[in-house]
Write a structure and sequence with these properties.
Blueprint lengths: L2 H6 L19 E9 L2 E7 L1 H7 L6 E6 L11 H10 L6 H16 L3 E9 L2 E8 L5 E6 L4 H15 L4
Antiparallel strand pairs: 1-2, 1-3, 4-5, 5-6
Bound molecules: zinc ion.
Zinc ion binds next to helix 2.
């Protein structure tokens, strides 16, 4: 199964998680990730419900638009960088994996540049520099195999409804 097939069978995201109102095609809505038993989970809100949900302590949120049915959206670089920063103090295996996989993807997009690989008692860290700000950041390498990397990328694709 390819990644794009997995997204298509992902749970329907066409409606508000509070009031169940359907989002019109290309209509604006809000999405938020929050902590759940199974790791980060996503909820979508219409504009009205978002006003009430805004203070619910989400891990990250963004304003989005329902894409036309035939469009496969690509994850927005700004959103990716924001999520990457929020994962700085990643405290679960899932978040550590997400941060690493995002780093790989941001390197492909030339937003992050590898400076060096630092080895310490807790394993390997990638030392990266942000293209825009010049800021140096460290990303722990959780030593995932190819399959685990694909799985984390697929999960991110589902959470954000977009290709990395
Ligand atoms: Zn609603």
């Amino acid at each position: 199964m390819t990644l794009s097939q997995q997204w298509r069978v992902a749970p329907s995201r066409g409606a508000c998680s509070r009031c169940a109102a359907e989002f019109p095609e290309e209509g604006v809505f809000f999405s938020a990730l929050s902590e759940s038993e199974e790791g980060l989970a996503r909820r979508d809100y219409c504009r009205d419900c978002w006003q009430e949900a805004d203070g619910d302590g989400h891990f990250c949120f963004w304003r989005t638009r329902r894409p036309p049915a035939d469009e496969e959206p690509v994850l927005d670089t700004e959103l990716m960088l924001d999520f990457f920063d929020r994962l700085r103090s990643a405290d679960t295996e899932e978040k550590v994996a997400f941060r690493f996989v995002l780093a790989l993807s941001l390197m492909r997009r030339r937003e992050l540049k590898l400076q060096e690989v630092a080895r310490g008692p807790e394993g390997e860290d990638l030392v990266l520099r942000k293209r825009r700000s010049g800021e140096q950041v460290k990303v722990h390498n959780p030593e995932l195999d190819e399959e685990q990397i694909q799985a984390a990328a697929a999960r991110l694709g589902q959470l954000f409804d977009a290709r990395l």
